[in-house]
Amino acid sequence: MIVYTLGTFDLLHVGHLALLEYCETLGSVLAVGVASDRVVNSYKPNLPVIPLEQRMQMLSALRCVDIVRPYDELEYVSGCKELNADIFVIGEDWGSKPHNLAVESYLKAAGKQIKQVLYNPRTSSTTIKQNVIAQSYNGNHLNLSAA
Question: How, if at all, do strands 29-35 and 67-71 pair?
Fold first, then answer.
């Protein structure tokens, strides 16, 4: 069974890893779609801080991930079709936007599954970015020369 999930995956963190490891348990192949900057900019005010190619490279290095593919349009049917995905995993903030309804309709008609997961409350890319900014304003500057 092919499992497909997608996201921005900016600042890869333990919440992303938990999602991907869960997805891996659902099938034999895990495919991950990574949103291009253009896609992210269509629904978030800020672009990712990590370039698309680097986000894809980090995901490819994870042993639980078999396929990494970018997507440059805010639609998911084509990815599900190209991968012949059996299970499509989505986040809790899914909503009822046209692109979401379109893939739900496709999956239902094709007899495929859609699974909704809760976000890991331990961390998020937004929280990480906020912490970095807060620390820099509090004089807790990071020593990046050692990196």
Answer: parallel
- Predicted local confidence at residue 138, as pLDDT: 67
82-101: per-residue pLDDT in tens? 999 999 999 877 878 888 99
Instruction: Give helix then strand counts, H and E, for the chain.
Output: 6, 5
For residue 125, what are its two tokens? 């890319």
CA–CA separation, 125 vs 127, rounded Å?
5
CA distance 139 to 129: 16
For the record, the structure tokens of 136 come out as 């820099």
Q: Do 23 and 5 meet the contact criterion of CB atoms below 8 Å apart?
A: yes
- pTM for the predicted model, two decimal places: 0.82
Three-class SS state of 109: helix
Find the helix or strand (DSSP H, E) in which 117 lies: strand 113-117
